[in-house]
Specification:
There is one protein chain. The strands form two sheets. A 16-stranded antiparallel β-barrel has the order 1-2-3-4-5-6-7-8-9-10-11-14-15-16-17-18. The protein has a two-stranded antiparallel sheet with strand order 12-13. β12 and β13 form a beta hairpin. The N terminus is likely disordered. The longest helix is centred in the first third of the chain and has 13 residues. It has a single domain, classed as Porin (Beta Barrel), CATH 2.40.160. The chain is mostly beta strands. The relative contact order is 0.15.
Length: 398
Amino acid sequence: MKQFFTLISAAMILAFPLSVMAEDEDYMPGTDAPEPAGFITELLNELLERALAPQPDGKPKLGRRLTDYVSAPKFGGYFIGTYKYSDQDGAGGGEGFNQRFIRLYVDGTILKDFSYRIQMQVNGSSPHMKDFFVEWAHWKEMKVKVGQFKRPFTFENPYNPWDVGLGDYSQSVRRFAGIGDYNGEVSATGGRDQGVQLQGDLFPVGRDKHRLLHYQLGVFNGQGINTGDQNGRKDIIGTLQVQPLKDLFIGFFGWTGDFVGKTATGGQTVTVDRNRWGVGVKYEHGDWSARAEYVHSQGHKIADYDHADGTVSGTGEADGWYAAVGIPCTPWLKTYLKYDAYRDQAAWSSMKTMYSVAPNFQLHKNLMFQLQYNYVNDKSSSVDSHYNEVWVETYVRF
């Protein structure tokens, strides 16, 4: 059975001819730009823009009674549905059909220099706030963002799910950027936290005047979304990215802080260190994509602490790396290949490796189907270390 899935996936990739996909300049993956609107919200946004008077020229007279100098709010939304099959022993065939999430968002500008965004998400029957922030963006060289938003850690974390190219983020990004965190933070955090951040782009170079240096530096609560600080200490997270050629970025990432949680045995409150660093490279040009990253984490898990006998297990170290490439095949087909490795104890005996191929069938900018095959080698599994997975995901913007 496992050999059958391997042969099918290989044949599936070889069957598609290569050509160049049409370029969509509406959104650059991995940036803070808003996602393209769906067909319903596109109509709604156009009606709002017509209804609101254009912003007047000149300098506004600031005050609580000022109503001009505000853009029409932009609404949007999308959902992702999944089907997952696994032939791993004891997995019962995998999760089957499931709702990955539904998202609704609104963004806009006030006084031209202030942008805002609100985003809500529903997982199953549990709605929660994902993003809420305001950013002062008068200068490209220095912007100030306050609220709840993506942590500036790893290249892949800021990517919209539409642009990741595969059915999930990389193992190291999920565990070390706060999407099902290594230390114990819940997966619903989605790589976000509450805080304040400086970011900017410096030193235009070359004929195209692309910015040589991009930086982000943030101070965060450290507890994830919709949660206050638990100990008064803050997480500091930052990145420095060099763009030697247009669309080619080399990045360095750092994170120091801690996380407060409760042990499974006895419910004891424990504070664990969260010291992380990473390096990576990404290239997004036209419809071609390539990125690779390595991330290392120091600090125990909440689950390592046993309240009953006061012992701590595990090495307190973990790391992971991945490499992914997206190949445009036709105007409606882009295929991603990925090698994804994660070591739960920073030891080879704890290594889980995934080899993935994922054709993305985007028939419309608001409709995409994704078929993904994973071959998994999990050395830490005591049940079945070699198995196959098939994921099918449906993406719809509305």
